């Protein structure tokens, strides 16, 4: 199964503050462990929401709102995607994540939808379309 | 430049375990996904099971504390994402606006950090990360 690990934003990340060299080094070691364990599928940091935007939909029209967004607790600063055998395995890895004691740090773990998770609504045609899409994406990512 | 388009569906924060999107919505979304792919901008995409099937870990005082979902205080949660490669934030917003979203959905557009975005000392401390990514990504 795949899990998306969401690193929640905080005042520091939203201010665009760089993590300390100590934390960066510890994160580097942690990322290496994830890669060596064959778990790491993807991982990225995101620029603060001040560099972002939100799009709201109302019928055929859409409205664009520029960042930053006030509810820091609802924002994310980065993510990983991991391949694990269970939710517990993902939790165990997250518990070992390096963090600065004085910063508020929160991580959310969310299971990623696999084709097997869908029922009959995900028709054979839609499944074939998804397989084709993913194969093409993989080519582009090379 | 790379951007994440984060799908935030209102109400998903209280969705029961096993909730799946409705067939018509999936069909419309797959058409949109194909248009992203045909334009050569689509790098990755995924849907997420609801928070009731997830967990949170907080690190107050450096000690990990695990809580199982759902999360009562969450007003907004992620339902899925796309990662796209485009020339500008305006282009990313243009793509987000074309998503067949409904009035209870918001797409947040966020720029992905590239190594070259960081000051030199940070790049030094993070040296090896790009190589690490290159090694890791084939493992799909």
Considering the chains and any ligands shown, give keywords for the structure.
heterodimer, A: 142 residues, alpha+beta, Alpha-Beta Plaits, four-stranded antiparallel sheet, 4 helices, 33% helix, B: 140 residues, two-stranded antiparallel ribbon, 28% helix, 25% strand
Question: Layout of SSEs?
Answer:
The complex is a heterodimer of chains A (142) and B (140).
Chain A: E1 2-8, H1 11-14, H2 21-36, E2 40-45, E3 53-58, E4 61-66, E5 76-83, H3 87-95, E6 106-111, H4 124-141
Antiparallel strand pairs in A: 1-5, 1-6, 2-5, 3-4
Chain B: E1 2-9, H1 23-38, E2 42-47, E3 55-58, E4 65-68, E5 80-85, H2 89-97, E6 105-111, H3 120-125, H4 129-136
Antiparallel strand pairs in B: 1-5, 1-6, 2-5, 3-4
Number of strands of chain B: 6
Oligomer: heterodimer
Assigned CATH architecture of chain B: 2-Layer Sandwich
What's the helix-strand series of chain B? EHEEEEHEHH
Q: What's the alpha carbon Rg of chain A, rounded to whole Å?
A: 18 Å
CATH topology term of the largest domain in chain A: Alpha-Beta Plaits
- CATH first level of the largest domain in chain A: Alpha Beta
Structural class of chain A: alpha+beta
Q: What portion of residues of chain B is helical?
A: 25-40%
What's the number of helices of chain A? 4
Q: Kindly provide the radius of gyration of chain B, computed on alpha-carbon positions and rounded to a whole number of angstroms.
A: 18 Å
Could you characterize the architecture of this molecule?
The complex is a heterodimer of chains A (142) and B (140). With 142 residues, chain A is α+β, with helices and mostly antiparallel strands. Chain A has four helices and six strands, in the order βααββββαβα. Chain A folds into two domains: 110 residues, Dimeric alpha+beta barrel (Alpha-Beta Plaits, 2-Layer Sandwich), CATH 3.30.70; 30 residues, no CATH class. Chain A is globular. The model of chain A has no long low-confidence stretch (mean pLDDT 90). Chain B has a single domain, classed as Dimeric alpha+beta barrel (Alpha-Beta Plaits, 2-Layer Sandwich). In chain B, the strands form two sheets. Chain B has a four-stranded antiparallel sheet, covered by helices on one side. In chain B, strand 3 and strand 4 form a beta hairpin. The longest helix of chain B has 16 residues. The model of chain B has no long low-confidence stretch (mean pLDDT 91). Classes of the chains: A alpha+beta (142), B alpha+beta (140). Chains A and B meet through strand 1, helix 2, strand 2, strand 3 and strand 5 of A and strand 1, helix 1, strand 2, strand 3 and strand 5 of B. Strand 6 of chain A pairs antiparallel with strand 3 of chain B.
């Amino acid at each position: 199964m795949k899990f998306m690990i969401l690193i929640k934003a905080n005042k520091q990340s939203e201010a665009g503050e760089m993590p300390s060299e100590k934390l960066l080094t510890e994160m580097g070691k942690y990322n290496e462990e994830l890669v060596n364990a064959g778990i790491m599928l993807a991982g990225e940091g995101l620029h603060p929401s001040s560099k972002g935007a939100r799009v709201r939909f109302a019928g055929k029209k859409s409205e664009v709102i520029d960042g930053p967004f006030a509810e820091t607790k609802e924002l994310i600063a980065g993510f990983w995607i991991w391949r694990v055998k269970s939710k517990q395995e993902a939790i165990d890895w997250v518990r070992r994540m390096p963090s600065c004691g004085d910063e508020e740090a929160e991580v959310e773990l969310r299971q990623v939808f696999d084709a097997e998770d869908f029922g009959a609504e995900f028709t054979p045609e839609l499944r074939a379309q998804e397989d084709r899409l993913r194969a093409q994406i993989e080519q582009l990512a090379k | 430049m790379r951007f994440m388009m984060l799908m935030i569906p209102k109400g998903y924060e209280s969705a029961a375990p096993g909730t799946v999107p409705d067939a018509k919505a999936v069909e419309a979304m797959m058409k949109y996904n194909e248009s992203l792919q045909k334009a050569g901008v689509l790098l990755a995409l995924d849907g997420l099971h609801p928070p009731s099937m997830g967990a949170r870990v907080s690190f107050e005082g450096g000690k990990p504390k695990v809580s199982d979902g759902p999360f009562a205080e969450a007003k907004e949660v992620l339902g899925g994402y796309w990662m796209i490669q485009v020339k500008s934030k305006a282009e990313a917003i243009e793509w987000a606006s074309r998503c067949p979203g409904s009035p209870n959905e918001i797409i947040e557009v966020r720029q992905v950090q590239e190594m070259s975005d960081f000051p030199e000392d940070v790049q030094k401390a993070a040296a090896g990360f790009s190589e690490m990514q290159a090694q890791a990504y084939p493992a799909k």
